[in-house]
């Protein structure tokens, strides 16, 4: 890494990589080193420290100049010594042998997944790929919401008004309609029947169970289309119903540890000491809750996968639930409770406000993908590309559009701007990659030899690309440490921008053999990193655009 080399060449044991920053545009120098952190220890003011160092330092190695500017040391690099930097290996095995569980998507079956589920699906998938990048073995878990009264309601509605063949044909939309109808016509009788039907499922009544399983199948079928489009596969589909079966064990454990108290027939864990509301683990009718099932699931995952970290990707509205869950597990004596992390994300909306979902009007994921694809098709038609390309552009625009904002922030998703060829979009990345492909075929036609060039003096555009490529690993680890795919998104956009600037100002296929060879090599490096980022972000590669 360039930064490591700079520190080495500064030859001062006080300086470390962490202090080294890139110099903002319009300032002299390439990197800068603020001297504040030394002031206390050396008993001098930072400006003095910088001045002293600059006046005695003799440039060496990669460094051509060091100047002091106030409390900063501005470092200029020798352009003839940087040509061979930039990440060579893109797989980092720092966490090799470690296991990460990631619970994401976790849709509630029988109801149409809403925009929030799109976020957890896309953010979760991307974080899973970041975890793999740094070396983890990743277990992807879709903790299905396949338990509770909604199913009783649906079974009742299906039995009363449903036409199975038609539902088979239409899919989950038809179930959604029945669900809405149930809620509209809601009466005491209907509610009682719903409760009854779900009780029958739990008692494994074969008729109720048959309808239940069929509903699950219809719902999953549809989700699988979306997962396929996004290229996501799960390793574990154990859902809430599975863990309901482990409720008694959990309650027994909690009682054994003396952690529960009774209130109006219900059981709760007292968390007031920790500034948390009490965590109810059993209702007065003896049934389990979301909380109980999550306790069972966490323990089961530890036993099954022996994870080093275990993540949960849901919207920030569930912050309190996960705080209470983790605290409860800690109180139960599980030292691994510290390895559980809630990855929250903010609310998503569209410019027309349509997504603010009301009952029966949920913004369906399918619609989002379809409208993205249709819009992309207009672009594709102009360019004479085929339908599959439109699908790839559309799906990528949705993924990237959700990932480019910091995940905890509320975001606005606008499909029009997500499909721009310029600007911060997946289309821009895809277009840049396709441009790189065409450069390679042109170079090939012109008979450019791709030889490695050792001695080369970089111009400013080339240097900017190298400097950015060299930050790849550091960026990936930042993205990992903060579970933030948006760092990858920003990095990729900047890489594409720097590359396009280089391409606009420098001829890749030139008369000079060495220059051509170096530049082609640089293009290869850019493409490798760009494609790597695109893969992490769920942006599909399009060979030609
Ligand atoms: N199904 C839940 C929902 O849609 C999310 C589940 C998240 N995972 C968990 N282990 N609680 O809100």
Can you describe what's shown?
By secondary structure, this protein is of the alpha/beta class. Among the domains are: 2-77, 2-Layer Sandwich (Gyrase A, domain 2), CATH 3.30.1360.70; 149-230, no CATH class. It is built from 21 helices and 13 strands. The strands form 4 sheets. The protein has a 4-stranded antiparallel sheet with strand order 1-2-4-3, with helices on one face. Strands 6-5-10-11 form a 4-stranded parallel sheet, sandwiched between helices. Strands 7-8-9 form a 3-stranded antiparallel sheet. The radius of gyration is 28 Å and the shape is globular. The structure holds arginine. The site of arginine has 9 residues, from α12 and β10.
Strand order of the largest sheet: 1-2-4-3
End-to-end CA span: 34 Å
* Alpha carbon gyration radius: 28 Å
Number of helices: 21
Number of strands: 13
Globular, elongated, flat, extended or rod-shaped: what is the shape? Answer: globular
Mean pLDDT: 91
The molecules bound to the chains, other than polymers, are: arginine
What is the oligomer described by this structure?
A: single chain
Q: Which range best describes the helical content: under 10%, 10-25%, 25-40%, 40-55%, 55-70% or over 70%?
A: 40-55%
Instruction: Note the main sheet.
Output: 4 strands, antiparallel
The helix/strand class is alpha/beta
Strand content: 5-15%
Task: Give the low-confidence spans.
Answer: 356-363
Structure characteristics:
alpha/beta; binds arginine; four-stranded antiparallel beta sheet; Gyrase A, domain 2; four-stranded parallel beta sheet
